[in-house]
Amino acid sequence: MKNTHRYVDIFNKDGELLHKPRQKLQYLSIVIILSLFTALGALLFYIANARMSACPYDTTLDYHYNFDGTDAKIFELKLQNCKFQLPQLPQLIGGSYSAFLKISISTRFMGKIFQPEAQLTSNDISISEYFENGAQGVRYINISSLLSSSLYPTQIELTKAQDKRAIQKKSVQIQLKGKRVLFKDQPIQLILFKNQDIANSRILIIAPHPDDAEIAAFGLYSSLSIPNTARLSGNSKNIYIVTVTAG
Predict the structure, then answer these.
(1) Which whole-number Å values give the CA distances from 146 to 26, 92, 131, 143, 166, in the listed order?
(2) Is residue 159 within 8 Å of residue 166, measured between CB atoms?
């Protein structure tokens, strides 16, 4: 049966309008929607504050490091349109370096709830670095893997290269993309530290948990224990892992 129910205005015996059912329902719907938006906003702010307070420090403060008295090599670069050019430094070719990018960041609101992420891409290589929820100010991004594989080949790579002049003159551009974090055009710094040559050293890795050695140092001991490298360095039996755990 067809529903013929309709909202009608209700009058008293003197012809005065008492109320409009449809108008009341419209007001009620508006109140419910506003209440839901208010509750959602309050919940998001609560989650954001909870995530930010999880760190035992103020995530809106700059990171400060003093490199005076160290062997750090610092180069002034410029970030423009989320891109920057790595310098050509022939004197660093064949070495092994740890590289960090000093940059100022600004987290979006959703970065207070979900972890902010920076994606750096050079040629076909891409890495991701993460920041604290609500992070603001100066941060240092580890770009060592991009540097070693893109711009400054190792001595082994130089030995295998047929055209050493071409590999030494190679220039690399890095693209920076932020998820829930902004990178404005700004001066930035490339900070390099020359890694120690440990190919012929005895290496002991102490892990407080069964997989901590792999998480923290797999790149180190695997690169020195692979057959070719180990045979060349004579270090195949000088790498030890000690796992200290109660369970």
Answers:
(1) 59, 15, 19, 5, 18
(2) no
Query: What pLDDT, on a 0 to 100 scale, did the predictor assign at position 15?
Result: 57
Pair 174, 122: CB distance under 8 Å: yes
pTM tops 0.85, yes or no: no
Q: Are 215 and 145 in contact (CB under 8 A)?
A: no
Average pLDDT of the residues in 26-34: 79
| Model pLDDT, residue 230 | 45
Print the SS3 string covering 95-117.
CCEEEEEEEEEEECHHHHCCCCE
110 Cβ contact list (under 8 Å, min separation 6)? 180
How far is Cα 77 from Cα 101, in angstroms, rounded to an integer? 10
Encode 203-238: b = buried (16+ Cβ within 10 Å), e = exposed. Answer: bebebeeeebbeeebeeebeebbeeeebeebebeeb
String of b and e for 77-109 (b: at least 16 CB within 10 Å)? bebeebebebeebeebbbbbbebbbbbbbebee
Residue 193 backbone class (left: φ over 0; alpha: ψ -120 to 50; beta: rest) = beta
To the nearest whole number, what is the mean pLDDT of the chain?
A: 77
The candidate with the shortest Cα–Cα distance to 93, out of 43, 166, 37, 33, is 166
